[in-house]
């Protein structure tokens, strides 16, 4: 503990001075075996360390927020209004990293056609004159091995999404038309000329016999799947941008990214990592995300290792075993499973099986290449296996899974909410417990109190953090509370009605 | 039609003579663009064409069963008893292939330790003295491009599963013990010696600091996942066996494989293809399979094409487009999605995009490489893209998805059943409709009639086939009936109580 406290003080002296080149390097979930190479210390940070702007912390409060011993809960100030009266609360970890590596953002922006002036200056914060299609964005970013990637994503991801949507703005403005399959260079729909009376197009070598029908098939793509494609593409661009800007800035670590986007009556929830979002409607839980972990993505990772063994650097095997194999066990039979299997079978142990398994460990302790406990997210471009030249990144994916909830087609009361939280929340509290707690809390709250969703978020957070006792952070049932950073949004689904 | 009739007559003359070198080559779902190379005609069939043994058809009835014009429904004879009083019905297609390419099997076998005598003569049908652990097997095999693979799988898959289970028989006999992680060569559990007081094992270079705990982690594997592994492995061995025996026999085509295995109180349902199984309990539907089609497996196939472009033979692109691109569209923007995307986005068309998409078409017309409409199954080792040297097989997977239903932990009435059917059934009848029809039918049936499940199967089949009217096979609602081969098992879940 004394060492930790000194570290915190050193970090604070940097922090209060406004300069935080990169966080202390701890890996996700207490793991310290992996390696992380940062850019040269001379590079400036892309964004300085801080907490979300909407918290409006003074330097003193910023310092106070990092007290691992007391773990103060930060919430919105009374008087601060987020769009939709969104509630928010956060707390730092119990000491696993000096700074809170979670980040969050909540923004209302406007989608509009890129104008001549802005065409090449993307990512501008300015929304001009407030015209365009309104877009609400909530993002939760759980950093690891530093805060750089999480901070950068919290500042820029919503703008990337906004700008990509701007490019299809003319399609969004005519939602009753299905998006054209082909666009001319000027963006107008392009149709292949149909030759009069020549349905067979005999000069086309592909159009033989019954394949003609298929040749002329045209899939109808909905506007909704176009928005999904924009979000998926924006995550990839965010990841590419982090990589690119690492040449000029210190951007440490990587982050899980969970984003909710409200556009034209639909809520798109995009998740890459182990954060989670649920909708609570009439006290019923609607899961809006799946978690991406070494266990849930085992077969995808094993398949990549199987098809591209060079990525395993002769150190790892794509085959999973229930434990490490010892040299003396060569020739014996051991349980295993490969990328094709869900069950287990026995195989005779050969020399190659003595390598370390690509996926190893159980539950929260499962790791990819003994290094990282999540399999999707942004950043991590220079993350390598400890003491090796093996990069983790090819196995990590920046692709989110996007689910759509049709907000306008459902009725919502004031207690119906979207809860978004980092794994710190969900590790100790189940979906059901969260739903019950939120529903119970909100039903006792003054429905006209604009703070009610923030109070509900704070209540959720306290339930997962617990209180400090002699034997650590404990929940009321004496179970261990979460020692991780925790970040929670509680978004009222009837909240758009509160907008002016 | 006259041409078709002649073909049938020719086939019959072979068939009645007991010789059926290989079926007429039609592709799954009416597609005729793909190519299929069979072994030299001089090779004998691995098994002659026929219908399941339990139907006990005379040569006359066998010929009658192939009448595409009348499509007679075949059921169990009154007096024939399948294990558990299983019900069965089948019907041939409306003309898309000469013979019924569906096959089925229903067997009771016994799992026992391989004895010295049998150790090297696996796949023997004989179950010896009837001792061992009883195993019930139901299999439904939907062939395409010939009946060879489907017939072979219907004869051998259950024996492969039985024999693989025999190898872990000593573990099955002690179900209260978790399977040992490591086995010595003689099959007895092998434990690594733990060194006295040396938890750190300082001489082991891997056991540094906090990784020690992980090094010593041991995953507990259940007997259930060992049985799942056996089934997965047996599907792979079945596929390998087809490939191997093609050197000596004519084994035409490939097949979807759906198998239900009852062992020690649990029902394991393994599916590779687009057949389907549901449990109906209290008239509620419990889906036991997912279908594997170009649409449901799009991303897996695209990922393989992306990582191994040489498999696409310079003819196909792994990127999906909503329609074929014409040369005149180069430089324009078109909707697309790659292996990472669920939504759609626009991309500028380049030369490479003019290749044919790996996955193309919608619904039942979706195809892999314009050739095949299912993505999992057995056989198809020589299936190539029409007029090319591009093999389809690397994209087809023989791996089943296995789901487990704990039969002993649930109460079942006489109307609770497992329904297994080829896609001919499900293409025109929904899960809900099947459940309602079965429940309604069985509730009107004499509960002591041993034929009730066969009558229910026949009823289901009639609902999907319809009756022949002027405009083809029609359902009572005038919709088109299925023109495909249809095979249905109705397995009573309380059926084991009917066993002696």
From TrEMBL, chains A, B:
Coiled coil: none annotated. Residues 85-493 form the PPM-type phosphatase domain. InterPro entries: PP2C, PPM-type-like_dom_sf, PPM-type_phosphatase-like_dom. GO terms for cellular component: mitochondrion. Residues 22-31 have a biased composition (Basic residues). Residues 18-45 are annotated as: Disordered. GO terms for molecular function: [pyruvate dehydrogenase (acetyl-transferring)]-phosphatase activity. Signal peptide: none annotated. This is Protein phosphatase 1H-like. It comes from Stegastes partitus. The gene is LOC103356064.
